[in-house]
Amino acid sequence: MRREISEEEFLNFAHSYLSEAFPNPQRIGCPCDWDLIEMAERSKEAKHAAVSEHLTYCSPCFNRYTEILCELKRQLRNAGS
């Protein structure tokens, strides 16, 4: 019998998997930091499709993108204080 997993469990698994499973030590095809920042700020724009796809097979970029998102959230919280 399968146990249903919660959305939070799934997202935690996905984050853990993407942050470690694709090391890319030569950083092949990696976008520059500015592209990651721009995507974090405007993620719904179609022009970010290639960067978004890259994050699914490059753990260093996925981790950097996650850092950028956390920093943006922190800035928004501080601006609202």
Short description:
It contains 4 helices and no strands.
How are the elements arranged and paired?
Elements: H1 7-20, H2 33-41, H3 49-55, H4 59-80
Helix pairs in contact: 2-4
Which shape, going by the Cα principal axes? globular
Structural class: mainly alpha
Average pLDDT figure: 92
- State the total count of DSSP E strands: 0
Radius of gyration: 15 Å
- How many helices does DSSP assign? 4
The major sheet is characterized as:
none
Helical residue percent? 55-70%
Order of helices and strands: HHHH
Percent strand equals: under 5%
Spans of at least 5 consecutive residues with low confidence: none
End-to-end CA span: 48 Å
Kindly describe this structure.
- Helix 2 (33-41) crosses helix 4 (59-80).
- With 81 residues, this protein is mostly helical.
- It has helices spanning 7-20, 33-41, 49-55, 59-80.
- The mean pLDDT is 92.
- It has 4 helices and no strands.
- It has a domain at 26-80.
- It is globular.
